[in-house]
Amino acid sequence: MTAITVDRLHKTYTVPEREGGLRAAVGSLVRRRTRQVRAVAEVSFEIDHGEVVGFLGPNGAGKTTTLKMLAGLLHPTSGEARVLGSTPWQRERSYLSRMALIMGQRNQLQWDIPVLDSYRLNQAVFRIPDAQFRSRLDELTELLELQALLRKPVRNLSLGERMKCEIAGSLLHAPQVLFLDEPTIGLDVAMQRRIRSFVADYNRRTGACVMLTSHYMADVEALCRRVIVIHHGRLLFDGGLTDLVHRFAAEKTITVELEESRADDADLARLVGGHPLERSATGISVRVPKAETARVAARLLAELPVVDLVVEEPPIESVIEQVFDAPEEQPSGQEVTGG
Amino acid sequence: MAGPLLDRVGHDARIVATYISLGVVNLVQYRSDFVLAVVNGLITLVTQLLALAVVFGQTSELGGWSRHDLLVLVGVHFLIGGLIGLVIRPSMETMMEGIRLGTFDFTLVKPADSQLLASVQVVRPPALVDVAIGVGVVVWGVGGRGGALSAGDVALFLLTLLCGTVTIYSFVLALSTMAFWFVRLDNVLAIFQSLFGQAGRWPVTIFPGWLRLLLTFAVPLAFAVTVPSEALTGRLDLATTLGAVALAAVFFAAARWFWFFALRRYTGASA
Known about the structure:
The complex is a heterodimer.
Chain A: E1 2-17, H1 22-30, E2 33-48, E3 52-56, H2 63-70, E4 78-83, H3 93-96, E5 99-103, H4 115-126, H5 130-144, H6 159-171, E6 177-181, H7 189-206, E7 209-213, H8 217-223, E8 226-231, E9 234-240, H9 241-248, E10 251-258, H10 265-271, E11 277-279, E12 283-289, H11 293-303, E13 306-312, H12 316-325
Helix pairs in contact in A: 5-6
Chain B: H1 2-25, H2 31-58, H3 67-101, H4 104-108, H5 114-120, H6 128-145, H7 151-177, H8 186-199, H9 209-218, H10 221-232, H11 238-264
């Protein structure tokens, strides 16, 4: 069952533009020059109920704009989207009461009042019956260990505590779709892990569909089997996380364990075709372009006393980095596959 | 048709009730603010009474208003000022800050009337001090005038007070809604507040014609303060009453239209 359908979604912002300096500033008061900035361009994808999808892209790629359109905050310039059967930006109450948007950098709990009071407000706004409110609150309190926090004013909480309370507050109405925008930003590693396992657990228990943006690859690796990558507003990739690495990794790492490390440096450099080489106590490892992997491996096997040889994909971070470094409109921009 | 509408009104009422109860429950947090509000309220009251004393040291009436009539007006001015400070102004300030910081997004993703949520999101109980002072001064003024008020007078007063509050609220909402285009707009509310504080505490009938028009339709202080005071001082006629109701309806409808117009253009603070 499809939970989210996005069809050629497009968003262009009109932004004021002026040059620096007093003259330009005064001029802009009289006549505002504006510029069209394309944030999201013809993006299409579908996400099923129960899926957790990582939504990746460098800063300014259009991730937040897309999430905001799906959460009903922004009207697109063109294109369609259906989430849980509704068009998000029509902001029907029946849709908004089944959806949650959580943003790591912004908090929605009221600053000056205790956490529990903010939850009561959510209860009124989302029309949660008393019995359900209590049982869900008990459950979330236990899972996220909120007991000691509920009666404190939000301003007295640490960043990690606040995020836990934000998440619990956003889930009281048991949303079926979750948009998580950098939910672990700024948190320490232990808290990141807590939040991660909680999101995974929520998805398992409720079958809610989750769309997650994060700059921490650990979040994505732990939660998402599928990723959607956008860059310069365009969909660059939609598929499995492992496929992403496979497709975009330009290099592989060959690690060989040697019987005895006799070979001298010049000899080794010749064998691996001059590619960057690292020596270790038991052998060497070398990063080679994908196309040369077989040739270099064969040469190493033939000419060195190899005990073991392993060919590995590079870590996901460095792959993502390569993808994000790609300039706009390069050929890989058209390499879009269905997921 | 009536079912869903009643349902919506019930939902809205429950939200408002929750905000109010949170304001009350968290009263303790405002203890020092209360003390400040009392001091501030009393200073303002004394200043206004002194101004009245100066005026009535020279004359026995001002544009047809006697000393006690003007006391009623000062009381109504306090009352409306208190209502603005209780929920309208703090909520609008919070909304404008939210638009600047991006937290306004959360108001929009809630399944409730966005205008209502934005308008009642902060209840600041210390402003009740002004409301109490207002009621006290109104009673003082009415008592000083002599002659009993009929139930009809009181009903008209409450009606015009409600209309005046709605009109002022709509005006302030429309001003604040401009924050969707202009990021820093806090000063607009400050200007309104000082206009309300200075011009609002005199009957608009004493101002020259052009200013009276301005204070009736452009910055609608006349209907907010002068008209309810007229109800308590035997001056209110039917035409003015109907005018107050119509003006409130027009201002409210216009502000609400403008609100949704602005929302469609909302782009939010960037990521």
